[in-house]
Amino acid sequence: MRINYRPPRLISSVVLLLVIILLGVIYETFSLEKKQALILGKQPVWEFKTDGRILSCLPENESRVFVYTPNAIYLLDSSTGELQWKTNLGDDTGVYRKYTIEAGIKSNGKALILQRDDGAVVSLSIQDGKILWKSVSTTKAPVYDIGIDSNLAYVTRRSASITAYDADSGERAWSETVPDRTSLYIFPENDKVYLGTSYVLYAYDIRTGDVLLEHRLDGFMGKMAIDVNSIYITYLNGEYIFVSLDKESLERQWSIHRGLQSVSEVNAMLVDNGVIFVSGNRLLALSAATGETLWVSDIKDIFGKPVVLNDFLIILGKTKVYILNKTDGSLIDNQKIPGFLPLLSWMSYSQANPCASESMIWIPGNSSLYAYDLTP
Fold first, then answer.
1. How far is CA 190 from CA 196, 206, 223, 254, 270, in A?
2. Does pLDDT of 222 surpass 60?
3. Model's pTM, two decimal places?
């Protein structure tokens, strides 16, 4: 006698659920592979060779990218790598030093300003690359940081000074001596320019240079980041302390202590959509609202400044570029720096940061810029 066996509905439902989960895993794996291919799994769409080691790259809109070397600055078409113009600047090999890794070139949409290691600041027209003005310190004090807004260019030097220049003409608007030995990180913002020094954060009036606000610290100040409402700083007093300050009053909103066992070095800070990304001996993410640690990456060889691109975080390592999920810090992809020479690994700290736009990512090699297309 033939018996028609029908599995219980519960078993059928469980099998169906397992099939759905399996399909979901396959889809997620495929999606991850697509993301990897979308980011760095491809061959470069173009390579541009420069006359020296690349110090910085800077996207301008979606169509152009600037490349800065010790000897020249280039404007390239971002899609093809075609040279739009080149301006020779003369040799400035001293800018290979590590502290220039996240500085060197800034733009306000009309003009570029470049920091040079001989104490000079050079301004160029974005349209044709012609030099608009050049400022040279009489003491040859090295430039520490630069900033620019629509009207003024700001320069801090190791002679403990901050100077504002007319962005178009280079005429000096005002200059102030900073009272203490200084870290000199600057952020122009609306009617103020914020200056971080060794033990004090200052807010200057951008028109007159008058000190409007100051916030004193009980330790040596490190890096800074800024968003719409707050300024985030680190300072060192036996351990790293992360602090959030109200941008208008400089009143402290929160502070978090991190022992040197977990954070022994801070090289860069970036704030994006309510999250502070900190890179040093490791990469970590903090809540901008509370300072709470959101995640810590286990990648150990990073030292560059993070670059945010959509849902991804791009960070430079000693020999590789890493792509992470910015929500949880998980590693999505990594790629060896193009043109990296193992025998010259001692120079890896001079490697420039990647730069990115919505559709492209550019990775500096030893003396070439490599472009990757991010469109599907």
1. 17, 8, 21, 24, 19
2. yes
3. 0.81
